[in-house]
Structure formats: structure tokens, C-alpha cells
Amino acid sequence: MEADAGWVPHYMYRMDHAYKRHRFWMKAPPLEKLPSEYFAEHIYVTFQDDWVAFKTAHLCNVRRLMWASDFPHSDSTWPHSQAVIEEQTKGLTEQERNWICHDNVAGLYGLTIN
Question: 19, 21, 47, 49: which is closest to 34 by C-alpha?
Fold first, then answer.
């Protein structure tokens, strides 16, 4: 989806909070895992100019985050994409940066990276 990703860690927390606190009176079915665990395992999110997503990547599943330039839309980072990535990924390891910037999308769609 195209809604950035900085919101993900808080949303995961709130899902767990609601499940733990309200599942009985809402008659929610019992789950084997917390809602945040299902989200972390199955939901991919995309983002472009969202430094919060890079700063909070460790609070969600970094293997489900996918950066995009959003070209040719007006909200795109193009033609400054490389500068944006350089600045916003400073706190990540090289592996985390590779996952977010290309490996995750390649794996999801079965693409080969040369």
C-alpha cells in the first residue's frame, strides 16, 4: 500500500493492546499468536520519503518493509532518491538497507537482482 510505514510499530502495539484488553467482551476468537506477530509475518508496507520508517525499522519486521521512489508521482523522491536514501538509512546496517531498498521487493515478486 502507499501510506508510508512509520505508523507500523504503533499500530502493531495497538492491535496487541486491543486484543489483550478487549477480546473477551468483544467475543474475539482466541489466536495462537498476538495480532502484531501475524502482521509482522504477513503484511508488507511500502514508503518513500519516510525517515520515521527507517528509524523504527527495528520495531517491526524489517523483512516486510519496502522503499520506493514513487516515480513519477509528485510525492516522489526523484530526482533526489539517492540523497534521500543516503540520509535516511544512516542508522541501518548494510544488510537492513539492502533488504528495505531492494531485496524484500525482489523476494516478494520473485525478481532476480543483478
Answer: 19
